[in-house]
Amino acid sequence: LQFLYFIVRGYKEPLLGATMPGLEETEEQLGKLAAGGVPIADSEVLKIIQSTEDAASFMVNYDENVLQSFLKLVVDQLNSAAVHEHTKTRLLLVLNNCAMFKRARDLIFNAIKYIDVNMESSMKVEGTMPFDSELGRMSEHMLVLLCRVRHYKIRAVEVLEFAEGNVQFAVQLLLAILLKEPPYEFELRVNCMTAMLGFSHPTTFFTAEESDNIQEKALTDFEDKINHICKLTKRLIVIRVVAQAISSPHLLQEGPVTPVVHVACMSTMKFITNVYNYATQQATSFRQHIIRSTSWVDKVVLPYICKLIHQIAQCFEMHNEKISVTSAFNPLRPPPKPCSELPKEVLQGLICSLRFLALVTFHMGSFGRSIRFINSFTYDLLRLPTDLFVSGNIRLYAALLQFNVNIDSLAGEEGLPQAEHLPAECTTDSLRNALSTMLRELDVKCLTKLQSSFHNTTDTMLARDVESFGVVDGLISQAIKDVDLGRKKEEDVKPEQGKEEYRLLGDLPDPARAKAVVQEDSTGNDEDLAPVVMDNKLVRPVSEIEPYQLAQTHDDAPAKFRCSLNGHLMKNPVSSPYGHSYEKETLEAWVKQAGQTCPFTGKPLSMDDVVTDSKLALEITQWHIKSQATTNEEADFDVYEF
Hints:
By secondary structure, this protein is mostly helical.
């Protein structure tokens, strides 16, 4: 194979056992070639590529002065109008090989600052030439080089500048690198995802000052860009590829979550959430695509959560002895110790993951309920030390409860397929008992904050029309009432008779327990998948007299931006002749189940009677953008080194 490689390249070189020239020899040879004033030949560049393929060996006698001289010679060739575009592409491969040597990256970054308009013109010309699958595009190699010399911290605004403001080209370039086979190094692919996160966030397109007065055309352009990203992500099965890259071996190896894996998981979940929030076309099908056609939830999010919980348990020095769920609450010996060194990314990762799970499982029918079989982490979180952990992380537990409501885990097992195989710690009785006990340990301040955060759905979705919502809301309200009346009960909760033992905070979830089959088609086209079948046990709105008003007190979103039926921030608002505004999809579900009747007045109401409120939709998007104008999600990951 190596012999054929050299035959195809058209030159001869010593084969196996030969010593490749190092930096000094290559710099000297390149200097001689450049001194002749003749453009460097392809055959010579190919020799340099071969020499630099093993960056560590090439830089074995690392010398900054020699490297600077070598880089200047390469950049001079790139800037030469006499050098062919394909030769320049190969020279970029040389620089990319050198950039794999970490100590050389800053020098390379300084050297490429001197690339001039001739090289920029060459990139444009090469972009119009027939694609060479073996060589690749010059623009791709240049962006890869920029990512490496920036230590994998390039941002969306920089990619956009590189693409001369062409968002579509910039996104496609990032995806080309992300989906490349054979793949680039994991850190580079993660950088592509953080940049994709940037392209899903308003701060890439609007400054904080501009967000105060965004014109309708600018909003429409922004939504069009997000819609394009949404379609590309589905069509190119991007999330499936990312899931495969992260899950093995990065989430299967022993030890805590590494910084690069943390960034990969967080940035991808935030990217999915942003695309759903801002897309005006196929937003719901995009959310369904994530849970139905990719393994992102069971192969990445759930193992990620379990590893984070395991880190928490280790911080509190909680052991992993097998225990039965029939044991008394918190049967840990010795008692957990105070922890003051819990990394902040652990809590950030848990909150982000739980909110993400609540979002993608909202109204997902059997696909959402199937996660109940691998939901042992909820029981684990409910049994962590109340005074040392739970009381200081109320937002985390609010997100946990939102997720459990959306998979209806607190409404019993009736109608759940193969419920007899449900692990003991995942049953409704076990979760209710653990939740009740945890709530009794909280003071009224924590309980009130938990109730407020539980109802706040600015960053996620909450199925207020399922039985589990009433169960959770009722348990919290009763706990507050017990504290207020001084009747906090101390009786032991009668546990369910255990079915099996399990390892507390130990094993990762077994995806085989989930009963929904993930349909991973090769095209990423979800049009042929059967529609999500909603449960036939939805309950009436929280208030049967007045439209939902509770959520407006928990954040800055105006009440008119919320659906009258479920209190969510609307994406596609419609107005009824009776003065109520609804999320179109929510009202459609109501009409389909309850009949053509207004949920508040009892008067006749069909989908033909409501009208799309485009003005309100634009106002909601404006509010979203303004609320995030001062937050740069990409910058959150700059503190990590990998």
